[in-house]
Structures are given as structure tokens and as C-alpha cells.
Write a structure and sequence with these properties.
The protein is α+β, with helices and mostly antiparallel strands. The chain has five helices and eleven strands, in the order E-E-E-E-E-E-H-E-E-H-E-E-E-H-H-H.
Length: 274
């Protein structure tokens, strides 16, 4: 049964109804156990006290915030719970925005919003109202140790929620400036536009898969059977010297959207980290 990430009330105006959040997705990867190189036995994580120079139990650990060098304020879980804002139990809608008004760069995590306690009529009403009005909701909700700004949208007769980054969490310093000399000519833009149209096609997410993960699983399977490891071929790409010539060759080659090949090998048993 799917785990509930958050439960409480969704409120807009004087209307409120109970909802539950479920994670919409989770990145998958191959997990490895940490082993002792000498005898391949499992390595366990040990909580260690630097002052007493000895291991301690998890029950002896408390949260502490460093106020100055080696000076800490201890904070209890109950104290954190006591200061949680009202949005810890009620998701408060603060405004509505037009569809596609929020830049996707702000999107953090995605969740399914489901009605709770069989109270479905206000849920359905809200879904249809968002769809018919062409708007999406901006709300606040406290979970996972912080208060999030979220975007709620209607899709396929249900609600989807996306937590958003705050502006100060976007690393603007990492945004690179493109030098003026890099400007393209009109003819180059025309050829690039033609190539884009030639390679255009509907987005089919089921056709995409994680090749790296598949290769790792195949590596594990081959090693377990004592077989020779199949290495991945690395394409040799030379820098483009003549951009116009490269664009013309791409168009003349009749390039089409690449079909996503399906994995043919058997999937190795997934391993969870220790």
C-alpha cells in the first residue's frame, strides 16, 4: 500500500476538505552494500562520540544547532512539533495563477493529491474549477521540516502538486553568460529550425529507460555468472568546425527521432544499500 507523505486539509476561501499526498515518483538506481575488502563481510554504520572516544547508541543522540564554535543549542522533536505553523495540518491556498505561468525551474518534487475520508465532492469540484478556469493554485504546506510553497494543478480529473524552490535556493551564480561572439547567423538559425522540425515527434515517456542502470545490472549478472564483462562503446565526437556544413549534412541524412531500444537482458536482482 502506498505510503502517505502528508495528510491534512486543503483550504481555499471558506471551503476546506481532507486530502492526502502520495509521492508521484522516485529515482531508481542500483544500490550496493558496503563490504570489508578483506573478507567481504557487511560494514555497519557506527555512531561515535568524539569527546568520549567511543561508540554510542542511537537513543543517546539529540539534535543540536551550532551557534558558535563547539557551542550548541539542543532542540527536541516535541519542541519542533509545538512551533509548526498551521500549514502543517492545513494546506492554505494563497492565490491562483494562469496555466504555465510558473517557470519549471522552480519545480522540486511532485505528488499525487487524493481525497481522504471519502469526502470527494469538494475535491471533484476543485478539480473541475481549476480545469475550467485555466488556472493553477499556489499554496503553502509545512512538511519534512520546512514550509513549502507549492503549485497545485488539475490533470486527468485529479490534482497534482509540485513543491517549489524558493528564489534564494536557485543558484543564479551558476547561470552562465553567452558571449556576444557566439551569436548565430540567420541562415544557421533557419537550418537549425528545419532540423528541429525534422526531429520532432510526440513525447512517449515509456520509450525512455536508464541505460546506465541497465548496464550496471548486466555487469552484476555477468560477474555473478563468471562471464566476460560487456563494455560500453564510447562514441568519438570531433568538435564542429563548420557549423553550416554540419547542419546541412544533418538535414540531408534524413535524421529522425531515435527509437528507444528496450533492454533484452535479464534484470539482475535489485540490491538495497545497507
Amino acid at each position: 500500500m502506498p505510503a502517505i507523505v502528508w495528510k491534512g486539509y486543503l483550504s481555499f476561501g471558506l471551503v476546506s476538505f481532507p486530502v492526502r499526498l502520495y509521492a508521484a515518483g522516485r529515482a531508481e538506481s542500483v544500490h550496493f552494500h558496503m563490504l570489508h575488502k578483506k573478507d567481504l563481510s557487511r560494514v555497519k554504520e557506527v555512531w561515535y562520540c568524539a569527546e568520549e572516544n567511543k561508540p554510542i547508541d542511537r537513543s543517546d543522540i539529540v539534535k543540536g544547532y551550532e551557534t558558535s564554535k563547539d557551542e550548541y543549542v539542543v532542540v527536541e522533536d516535541g519542541e519542533l512539533k509545538s512551533i509548526a505553523p498551521p500549514t502543517a495540518t492545513t494546506m492554505d491556498i494563497v492565490q491562483f495563477v494562469g496555466t504555465d505561468e510558473v517557470d519549471p525551474i522552480y519545480f522540486e518534487h511532485s505528488y499525487y493529491v487524493a481525497p481522504a475520508e471519502d469526502v470527494t465532492k469538494p475535491y471533484v469540484l476543485f478539480v473541475k474549477a481549476l480545469k475550467d478556469s485555466g488556472h493553477e493554485a499556489i499554496a503553502k504546506v509545512a512538511m519534512h521540516g520546512r514550509e513549502h510553497v507549492v503549485l497545485i494543478r488539475s490533470e486527468n480529473d485529479q490534482l497534482l502538486l509540485h513543491t517549489l524552490f524558493y528564489p534564494n535556493e536557485l543558484h543564479e551564480a551558476n547561470r552562465q553568460k553567452i558571449p556576444a561572439k557566439a551569436e548565430a547567423t540567420k541562415k544557421e538559425i533557419e537550418l537549425a529550425t528545419q532540423l528541429i522540425k525534422q526531429l520532432s515527434g510526440p513525447f512517449k515517456p515509456k520509450e525512455f529507460h536508464d541505460t546506465y542502470r541497465e548496464n550496471v545490472e548486466k555487469l552484476i549478472e555477468q560477474k555473478a555468472k563468471g562471464e566476460k564483462i560487456t563494455t560500453a562503446k564510447k562514441p568519438q565526437r570531433a568538435p564542429v568546425i563548420d557549423l553550416m556544413e554540419a547542419l546541412k549534412k544533418s538535414l540531408n541524412s534524413g535524421a529522425k527521432p531515435k527509437a528507444m531500444s528496450k533492454a533484452t537482458h535479464k534484470t539482475a536482482r535489485r540490491r538495497k544499500a545497507a
